[in-house]
Amino acid sequence: MAERGDVVWAPDPFKSGSGNPRPWLVVSADRLPYPNEESIAVAFTTQSHHPGSFAVPSKAWVRGEPQTQSYVLPWTVATLKDETHIVGVQGTISDEFADHVTTTLSSYLSPSTDVEDT
């Protein structure tokens, strides 16, 4: 079972073919309807050209830090079925970093109370 803060390998929806896993950061908690079977995750990447992505600092890694700088895309969200999609675990990031990512994700889902003139 994937835990909040785990960086897991699961299918990449942006590429075709069977050998295409990519890293995902699990951000869901136990409040999901099926917490022992599914996880909500956001995409990891080594590409830094995405405005709004977060660099994962070394101090955020609890275990399994890769040799290449990683970034989180908090707007690229997937529901992963643990038994079907997750093919491995790379490591774990800190609760503080996971909180930062989920706060940002939540902000994308909340309606804005400010209306901008365009």
Helix and strand element order: EEEEEEHEH
The first-level CATH class name: Mainly Beta
User: Helix proportion of residues, in percent?
Assistant: 10-25%
Please state the second-level CATH architecture: Roll
Secondary structure class reads alpha+beta
What's the end-to-end separation, in Å? 46 Å
How many strand elements?
7
Number of domains in the coordinates?
1
Q: Detail the poorly predicted runs.
A: none
Pfam families: PemK_toxin (PF02452)
GO molecular function: DNA binding
Protein name: PemK family protein
InterPro entries: PemK-like, Plasmid_toxin/cell-grow_inhib
Summarize the structure.
The chain is an alpha+beta fold and 118 residues long. The chain has two helices and seven strands, in the order ββββββαβα. The longest helix is centred in the C-terminal third of the chain and has 15 residues, at 95-109.
Note the main attributes of this structure.
118 residues; PemK-like; 2 helices; alpha+beta; Plasmid_toxin/cell-grow_inhib; seven-stranded antiparallel beta sheet; SH3 type barrels
How is this structure best described in words?
- The protein is 16% helix and 36% strand.
- The chain is α+β, with helices and mostly antiparallel strands and 118 residues long.
- It starts with 5 loop residues before the first strand and ends in a 9-residue tail after the last helix.
